[in-house]
Amino acid sequence: MLPLRAALAAAGALLLAFAPLVPSLAAPVRPTDLEAKPTSAAPASPAGAAALTQADVAAYVDGVMPYALARGDIAGAVVVVVKDGGILFEKGYGYADVAARRPVDPARTQFRPGSISKLFTWTAVMQLVEAGKLDLDADSRRGPAGPSRFAT
Prior knowledge:
Layout: H1 4-18, H2 54-72, E1 76-83, E2 86-97, E3 102-103, H3 116-130
Antiparallel strand pairs: 1-2, 2-3
């Protein structure tokens, strides 16, 4: 069994791995959806697209998470799906404390971010690059002015 810290880090990685799958629940992708089309304003939803419901997400995640926890030897995880700025689905899986058999509570259980924070940092950096506010090829010695290294 993995140490608790490694298990928590793995749980966070697992959440990030499943995040791209959630939009696929909204509607099936057809080859015609991938063709380039002229757009005027906001793109319209495909005709007959099913709305993403809490029941659909719960059925999918409840089916995947027990297997993922067992296969990854992960103590516990929290899955939160956000849609239109609100929480659509929120549930804890596994144990926050394995020895005490205390289940994960999505509102209270805290996980250490560990190496996962690097992904968030890099995402923020790349967003700055896309916005033209940061140049990855710039000389790092010409960064923002800071305090003198001799200041006390």
